[in-house]
Amino acid sequence: MCSLTVPREPLRRVAVTGGTHGNEMSGVCLAQHWLRAPGELQRPSFSAMPVLANPAATAACRRYMDRDLNRTFTNTVLTARAHPDDPYEVTRARELNQLLGPMASGRAFDFVLDLHNTTANMGTCLIVDTAHNVFAMHLYRHLQMLSPELPCRVILYQLPKEESGSLGSVAKNGIALELGPQPQGVLRADLFTRMRALVAAALDFIQLFNQGTAFPAFEMEAYRVLRGVDFPRTEAGDLAGTVHPQLQDRDFEPLRPGAPIFQMFSGEDVLYEGGSTVYPIFINEAGYYDKGIAFLQTEKLAFSVPALSMPAPDPTPGP
Amino acid sequence: MCSLTVPREPLRRVAVTGGTHGNEMSGVCLAQHWLRAPGELQRPSFSAMPVLANPAATAACRRYMDRDLNRTFTNTVLTARAHPDDPYEVTRARELNQLLGPMASGRAFDFVLDLHNTTANMGTCLIVDTAHNVFAMHLYRHLQMLSPELPCRVILYQLPKEESGSLGSVAKNGIALELGPQPQGVLRADLFTRMRALVAAALDFIQLFNQGTAFPAFEMEAYRVLRGVDFPRTEAGDLAGTVHPQLQDRDFEPLRPGAPIFQMFSGEDVLYEGGSTVYPIFINEAGYYDKGIAFLQTEKLAFSVPALSMPAPDPTPGP
Description:
Two copies of one chain form a homodimer. By secondary structure, chain A is an alpha/beta fold. Chain A contains six helices and 13 strands. In chain A, the strands form two sheets. Chain A has a ten-stranded mixed beta sheet. The two termini of chain A are 39 Å apart. The mean pLDDT of chain A is 95. The interface between A and B is medium-sized, with 35 and 35 residues.
């Protein structure tokens, strides 16, 4: 059984990381900008540290050099003995674990907000491990209330028994902010401005929490990842078709049994043969082709989030 | 003075190349598909050969490995002595020059159609060296008349005195088909279907020409590339701003003096200070960041295209 993620104390050590994937340009350029001008991340009760997470991949404008950094923060990788032939991202994950962790230790950062883009038509999303992350759910509600006209969605991305490996997992609490659609290697002004405003609002939320604000309980919905679905492929592994025009750009919309999901180069449609309605996300995400994922199936969950506020300090021990 | 590019004989040797940039997926997947099923490129008077131009970059899903292949077909590169340390694309350019050329020789292919995608909002474009390419202009007109609802635009991309270096330059005549917007590393069904239909129509046009069809003179407009404009950058070369929201996605629309072109991260707008209206293209193209190009300025030209038909065969010499 999972315990709820609720901070017991003010969050003093916060990091905002960009360029975990080196060609997701909103976070890359924000991190680079804040490293030159960190004042924007200052709040009265804390200061967030900007981090360019994967400098080599950023310089090469690639998602990663040797392996996906955002799948590399596993206990196995972080505790193995270092070796000169380690992949670049293994070495970098250990460096970040020293900087922002160590994972699961008292010295770890209180909160990491990791900035991402997707080529999919996903708008604004928060990616969180589980619905038990009460702090993240209240952050979501804060962001959504500030911009009611733009949907902000929560994705619960931890598969059962799977170790996340995400950058945020080195901190006591970590979530990803995902904005799309934006091509890899392109910086759109609209998404840059939106991500910058969302980060500012997230830091404002932490400030409110730190100063003792009480956030009431509420009801919400989130999308829980069930499984990935690969493209149709030839025996050699090349694409034999791609996402169907009726599915393309329809992230978060219901996909019902019998609806088309792929269009083969030979002309036929491939239909969704599952038994129940699912909600596809990361549809045709460039970074997922080499993971064998054309889209992720999710289910929509409704749940209650308990109230959040800093616990009252322990009474001063008597004489 | 330039001579007009008008074939004197039927086009027998035609190639369709994809993956010249390995992450431009419409051409990559079409070339791979046609290599498995070449019948689609067969016409009564000729058969087009599919070519995957940059296999290493395609496998890595990158624009290129060492240098941009589509700037490598220069006389200097193709005639230099081969060396084991040559960049991958230099070696590959020489291979393609042997396969499709040699450049400027009688043995060269009659026509190469090179398939590209852009992340810019450019729709359907033909990229041609100069307006003197009469055959290409008639091909443009043929494609435009087949789909009057979708604009097809012609870009004249050869700068004065500049050697093109493009793949098409190894053949007797070569043009590029450019479709956008599509993120690098993503295959959208809509653009795949459209590119496939355009290639089929281009092959049909060559068939019509080969069988003696006469194409009348007409008037047209095209966009001639004047110069590139770089992003605002810091002293270290990082981005200091990006394409202004009022310019983003407005490829081929007039840009008037005083209109905003960039939005700085510090908040100010940068205005277009040129003296005359230009027509920006390749706005925020991912592949141009490392070339120092945020967009290309073009001018719109109107001109007449002479009639096209195969010259009558020489009369048989008398006894």
